[in-house]
Amino acid sequence: MPSLDSFKARKTLSVNGKDYTYYSLDAAAENGLGDISRLPASLKVLLENMLRNEDGTTVTKDDITAFKTWLDNGGNVTQEIAYRPARVLMQDFTGVPAVVDLAAMRDAAEKLGAVADSINPQVPVDLVIDHSVMVDSFAGPESFQRNVEIEYKRNQERYEFLRWGASAFENFRVVPPGTGICHQVNLEYLGQTVWTKEVDGETIAYPDTCVGTDSHTTMINALSVLGWGVGGIEAEAAMLGQPVSMLIPEVIGFKLTGKLPEGATATDLVLTVTKMMRDYGVVAKFTEFFGPGLANLTLEDEATLANMSPEFGSTCAFFPVDQDTITYITNTGRDAERIALVEAYAKAQGYWRPDMADPVFTDTIELDLSTVVPSISGPKRPQDQVLLSEADTKFAEAMVKEFGTAADDPTRVQVDGEDFSVTHGDVFIAAITSCTNTSNPSVLIAAGLLARKAAALGLNRKPWVKTSFAPGSQVVTDYLDKADLTKDLNALGFNLVGYGCTTCIGNSGPLQPEIAKAIAEGDLVSCSVLSGNRNFEGRIGPDIKANYLASPPLVVAYAIAGSLKINITKDPLGQDKDGNDVYLKDLWPSSHEISAIMAECVTPQMFAERYSDVFKGDQQWRDIEVSGGQTYGWPMGSTYVQNPPYFQGMSPHVQAPADIHKARVLALFGDSITTDHISPAGSIKASSPAGAYLQSNQVSVLDFNSYGSRRGNHEVMMRGTFANIRIKNQMVPGVEGGVTIHHPSGDQMPIYDAAMRYMDKNVPLVVFAGTLYGNGSSRDWAAKGTILLGVRAVIAGSFERIHRSNLIGMGVLPLEFEAGTSWETLGLKGDEEVTIEGINSIKPRQTVEVKITKADGSTVTANTTVRIDTDNELDYYRNGGILHYVLRNLAHEAA
């Protein structure tokens, strides 16, 4: 329906002779809203969304005036709004289960009396297959082709399903394997900064906005596209026309001044900002960059920053439109008409950066770019910045503090069949991987130049280092080829392994068996260095303990050095052909060298050619047969795609959630349990419940693939929930891995097995946790697996934004301890019974008592806050989840 337009904001914008209808912020200001010129640019985008979608129900006049109140209150107001993104972006790990759910909803819709093909995305959806390639083959000219062949073999069932989805659903496109990662394809091609659509003969212009099923969707903020990551559950709701329910956020302004010094990279800047943001605390807030320093950054630098917004903890990291935006969309081949519209629209709406006065922010942080120095980050978190000059000493400290090993432990293990041995601190994986850095030519060209200088001197990677190069788009290899840098990277083992997200998500592939054996024998503190954004424990590879984020040229340098015990700012990386020491300063390229190659070798024609037919795919993709009609013919024998049980027995009418009586505790967790800990990720162990299931279905261990690739099969995923090799359930102190104690038997067993034993007896379950429960990625199955295991409530010190929302979206009740209370202060051991009453009548953010009966019969009561924050979320929870809510509405409309 058209907007009620209470503020008479609907106007016409003429650009080069073409008229666009748009909702003018200036007109709204003049017609009663008041001066909102100093709103942050990101909030101007949200405000336009309210003006355009005002319907009197989900968006009211009060929602719009709340933005003026926010400004008057100095960047703070409590107001729920219903935000409608223009489009949805998916990657295949999280996208496949979303499409599985849509297919299941079509089946369920028919049973509830609705038409199957009424289930369609209501906004454009693009799914980029980028998370399935693994680094099986590396450091050879055949690596890319071999990995592609293995990828298709492993994922045939998934790809058949996605090919069906692309033909069955409207508004749904699939970017085939081998094209690039979703964030870089979004930045280089999909994102438009200003979106348009035809309605009743008019062209409506409005900000390009999106939500994505990958937390690093925020990379597109650099292109002035307001976007952030949501769980698959929220994304499905957005696809189906449901608004994203949110509070008008606080906005932290990040002021940049100065210029990066010689030798510092965009990656160093990102790691510096990540630490500053985490130290400040920006969780659930918007961040927006401003200040004169922006003039000294490229849009690719800004994209590197925006990509790391989840590591900051913020919802987004927004940049206003400026000349760099126009230059970038011009150089990447956007249509001339769109380029003209972007500039005119941004100027008309007051977020063209050169014309903007400094906005009013909730608070500000400031950084002088000239103070940025080379850094890495690790060994377990992106915010743990380590100055490169101190990397060796900080690693020695981590040996003791993080891994319980003496810094001078002399253990050294001879590798079977090789003429070398390995020890603590050795780098076993050095990966230039996609996501954060490969959209930025400056750091990739720097890596190539460093490799060129090293190869010319006769240096090479250490023999125990597994090297890989997985860029985010085909354009990257085009400009490296043109610069003649590919051969230099290849000479050091950084051969192309695939276009996709690899090491950063645990798709690093296996180490050589003899090296893995040596690591295990010596219980070595093994290391990886990667140019991605995530280095959580247990994520990069099962044989790796310490993981460090670094710029691409530093990844190459550490592959040559081969150890974190070396101070690469002072110690030689190796010796040249004549036996002379070679230092990092001898290899490091100058900014002039880098910029000269960028100017010559990164051309608009490369983008135009690579994206001219982006949805076509290679011959293997085109040869996949598509079967099925409006509903999917679920293959009974598939171990990749199965019809999920969420809608079994669903009635057309809401059945109020029941109270929880005598629930058992499935797990007691500490602080900072990430969704990587909760959600199945990485490799599947043969001895695990998921491994046992696959073997019972005649899948050999060699064909297990990863959890991520099997996200479309709930039987695998629920078995892998809470099964991370590094998760620590405090019911079993001193033990790592997904185990628990079943009560009242006292038996120790895998969490999945205990959950099924409880389910057989109709015993509900709860989980207790500390602060920041659910931060990280891999989010949808962290909530889906939780409900499928029978968990009715999670009681924690605090929740990460997306995971809290996803728990509600799956019908799990999130409760937050009052300040000063935790399961530790309550003296819980995990053998208690838990009762929560009054669930049927709960209201957003009300206080609820959790009654706990201990094993000795004594009782204790904890006051908790219901972390259902809005009325929309309450509706979802009462329906049993957001998908049930949508289905019931469709069924009622059909009736």
The secondary-structure class comes to: alpha/beta
Report, as a whole number of angstroms, the end-to-end distance.
21 Å
Number of helices: 31
- Uncertain runs are none
Percent of residues in β-strands: 15-25%
List the strand order in the largest sheet. Answer: 26-29-30-31-34-33-32
Please compute the radius of gyration using only Cα atoms: 27 Å
Please outline the major beta sheet: 7 strands, mixed, barrel
Approximate shape = globular
Index terms:
5-stranded parallel sheet, alpha/beta, 895 residues, single chain, 31 helices, 7-stranded mixed β-barrel
Provide structural commentary.
With 895 residues, the chain is an alpha/beta fold. It has 31 helices and 34 strands. Strand 30, helix 29 and strand 31 form a beta-alpha-beta unit. Helix 4 packs parallel to helix 31. The radius of gyration is 27 Å and the shape is globular. 58% of the residues are buried. The mean pLDDT is 94.
Summarize the structure.
By secondary structure, the chain is an alpha/beta fold. The relative contact order is 0.11.
Q: How is the secondary structure organized here?
A:
Blueprint: E1 10-15, E2 18-23, H1 25-33, H2 41-52, H3 61-72, E3 80-83, E4 87-91, H4 92-111, E5 125-128, H5 143-154, H6 156-168, E6 172-175, H7 182-190, E7 194-199, E8 202-207, E9 209-212, E10 226-229, H8 232-239, E11 244-247, E12 251-257, H9 266-280, E13 286-290, H10 299-307, H11 309-312, E14 316-318, H12 323-331, H13 336-349, E15 363-368, E16 375-377, E17 385-387, H14 391-401, E18 412-414, E19 421-423, E20 427-432, H15 441-456, E21 466-469, H16 474-482, H17 486-491, H18 513-522, E22 527-530, E23 546-549, H19 552-561, E24 574-575, E25 581-582, H20 584-587, H21 591-601, H22 604-610, H23 619-622, E26 660-668, H24 675-678, H25 689-696, H26 714-720, E27 739-741, E28 748-750, H27 751-760, E29 765-768, H28 780-788, E30 791-796, H29 801-809, E31 813-817, E32 833-836, E33 847-853, E34 859-866, H30 871-878, H31 882-894
Parallel strand pairs: 4-5, 4-9, 5-6, 9-10, 12-13, 12-15, 13-14, 20-21, 20-22, 22-23, 26-29, 29-30, 30-31
Antiparallel strand pairs: 1-2, 3-11, 7-8, 16-17, 18-19, 24-25, 26-32, 27-28, 31-34, 32-33, 33-34
Helix pairs in contact: 4-8, 4-31, 9-10, 12-13, 15-19, 15-21, 25-26, 26-28, 28-29, 30-31
